[in-house]
Predict the structure.
Amino acid sequence: MAAKTDRLLSVLKLQPVVPVLIVEDAQSAVPLARALVAGGLKAIEITMRTPAALEAIERVANEVEGAVAGAGTILNPAHFDQAVRAGSQFIVSPGTTPELLAAAAGSDVPLLPGAATASEVMLLRDKGYEVLKFFPAEQAGGAAYLKSLSSPLAGTLFCPTGGISLKNARDYLSLPNVVCVGGSWVAPKELVAAGDWAGITKLAEEACSLKA
Ligand code: 3PG
């Protein structure tokens, strides 16, 4: 577990913001990921929310130099296995189930599991998880809530995701228990649809200049 945690941390520490992508068209995933990498965001989470997701992960993993492709919205062992076979180097889930944790335990690919309450964090700590996704961050109580977990649950680090943007990212990044944040704001639908890759690189650069 320690080696997997180290690998996960080294991916999450590549940048202050992990882009969360909902890819409708696998073709566009490659220029989109290239635009994000050009702006400094290398670790990229592609969510399993569309039929294009697996092909997008595969293409980003194989074709985008410098990218670290990950899979998000992993809800069950089947998703986990498919995402790993497509080349995901990290796996993200909004919450956990015993079945998902069992699949993760049998794989070398690290899981960033979601948690939003002290009890969920404690259950995952008992399973050896030291780095968690705090989801949905803003809706569950925001930076103030997460800060209040830092003393009783010291030693657990978080990647908060959900409702985060350039405006509030610093509130999280300044907390002692935050390693990075996640968000979809760096890849807005309109810019992707327009193929405005330069615009996306600019958003990535802005995000990258936030300090963890
Ligand atoms: C996620 O899957 O982590 C969230 O949907 C991303 O949240 P956001 O769209 O509010 O950034």
Summary: The chain has a mean pLDDT of 97. Residues 20, 47, 72-73, 135, 161-164, 182-185 surround 3-phosphoglyceric acid (CB under 6 Å).
